[in-house]
């Protein structure tokens, strides 16, 4: 497992931790602070953890700036002996440090107070380790800023913005389900997530699994999913709001939660309004955690509601595309079969013609029988076309 050393006490921590497990201090070694020149307001903070980092507009990027002027994986930062070094790939737009353009594929140090201009954003880097010349008040302010920079609510907001920005480019429902699963795992830190399509059969609602992933976003492949079926049933019966069963010892778990040692469950019902104006369930995203009893972050429900609404809206769009593609595929299959049958008749006629030319038979009844067979085959094809169109 990847790890980093806390810049305060040197303790080795898992790479995903935002606070040191030993000294409990913020794990951020520095932060970018917006100067307010671009899409983000003055004072907006991005934490910089003491490890290799990627800045970009994609949800997978460590320093997430989801704007049109920032590319996915726009640039890379390496942390070496207390200093961050920026590397700009050759194909990335020009960036500037203190007004000077950065040479591509060349590491350049970012010292305390350096200003980075990237896209429309102008960011100033502030290191949290301070110096011996700093006063006690200045060091205290740096510690406060370090803690402020690690804000899970802001992190979730950036991921929701990035999700909304990129989901519009997805053209099928499976990709949207997969992207939504990735996002919910990133903003909740749960262990795994599943996406289900809800299908109506008669008066019954049935679920069809679309995709399942672990916390590292790798796909789970298993025949039977050890999820809380009772909670899924509750979501199916009540198609309204987000369902959260938080990790709290005082809450009585359902039987299936106890059986599988599930401590925290989140279910997002994906709904649309049908022609009658009634809410209709089209999918469910389920996520849970089995090992930790730490409660979910406060305010996460609002982020999940936003994710649910965005996902539902774009699923409707792609479901229509899926239906159109399904119809198109059906036509392709039908016409391929029709062509194959016509080719068989044509080949049969060609064979008959060759026999007549070379005179392999003088019995005209043989050829008459072949013509009759072709005629019957053509009638069957014509009837099939009439019935299907």
From TrEMBL:
SUPFAM superfamilies (alphabetical): GAF domain-like, SMAD/FHA domain
UniProt cross-references to Gene3D superfamilies, sorted A to Z: 2.60.200.20, 3.30.450.40
Signal peptide span: none
Xref: Pfam families: FHA
UniProt domain FHA: residue ranges: 54-119
Lineage top rank: taxon: Bacteria
Identification of the protein by name: FHA domain-containing protein
Species: Lentisphaera profundi
């Amino acid at each position: 497992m990847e790890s980093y050393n806390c810049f305060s006490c040197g303790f080795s921590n898992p790479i995903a931790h935002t606070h040191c497990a030993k000294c409990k201090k913020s794990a951020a070694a520095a932060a970018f602070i917006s100067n307010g020149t671009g899409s983000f307001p003055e004072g907006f903070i991005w934490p910089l953890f003491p490890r290799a980092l990627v800045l970009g507009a994609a949800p997978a990027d460590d320093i997430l700036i989801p704007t049109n002027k920032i590319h996915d994986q726009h640039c890379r930062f390496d942390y070496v002996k207390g200093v961050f070094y920026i590397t700009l790939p050759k194909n990335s737009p020009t960036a500037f440090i203190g007004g000077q353009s950065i040479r591509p594929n060349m590491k350049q140090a970012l010292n305390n107070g350096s200003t980075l201009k990237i896209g429309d954003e102008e960011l100033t880097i502030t290191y949290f380790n301070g110096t011996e010349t700093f006063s006690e008040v200045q060091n205290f302010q740096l510690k406060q800023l370090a803690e402020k920079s690690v804000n899970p609510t802001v992190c979730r907001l950036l991921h929701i913005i990035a999700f909304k920005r990129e989901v519009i480019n997805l053209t099928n429902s499976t990709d949207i389900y997969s992207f939504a699963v990735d996002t919910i795992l990133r903003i909740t830190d749960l262990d795994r997530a599943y996406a289900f399509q809800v299908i109506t059969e008669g008066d019954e609602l049935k679920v069809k699994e679309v995709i399942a992933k672990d916390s590292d976003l790798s796909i789970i492949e298993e025949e039977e999913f050890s999820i809380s079926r009772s909670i899924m049933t509750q979501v199916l019966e009540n198609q309204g709001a987000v369902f959260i069963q938080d990790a709290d010892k005082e809450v009585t778990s359902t039987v299936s939660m106890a059986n599988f040692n599930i401590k925290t469950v989140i279910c997002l019902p994906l709904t649309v309004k049908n022609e009658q104006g009634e809410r209709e369930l089209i999918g469910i995203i389920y996520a849970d955690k089995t090992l930790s009893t730490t409660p979910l972050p406060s305010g996460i429900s609002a982020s999940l509601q936003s994710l649910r609404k965005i996902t539902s809206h774009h699923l409707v769009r792609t479901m229509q595309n899926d239906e159109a593609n399904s119809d198109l595929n059906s036509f392709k299959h039908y016409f391929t079969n029709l062509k194959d049958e016509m080719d068989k008749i044509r080949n049969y006629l060609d064979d008959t013609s060759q026999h007549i030319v070379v005179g392999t038979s003088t019995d005209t009844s043989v050829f008459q029988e072949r013509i009759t067979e072709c005629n019957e085959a053509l009638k069957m094809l014509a009837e099939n076309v009439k019935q299907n169109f």
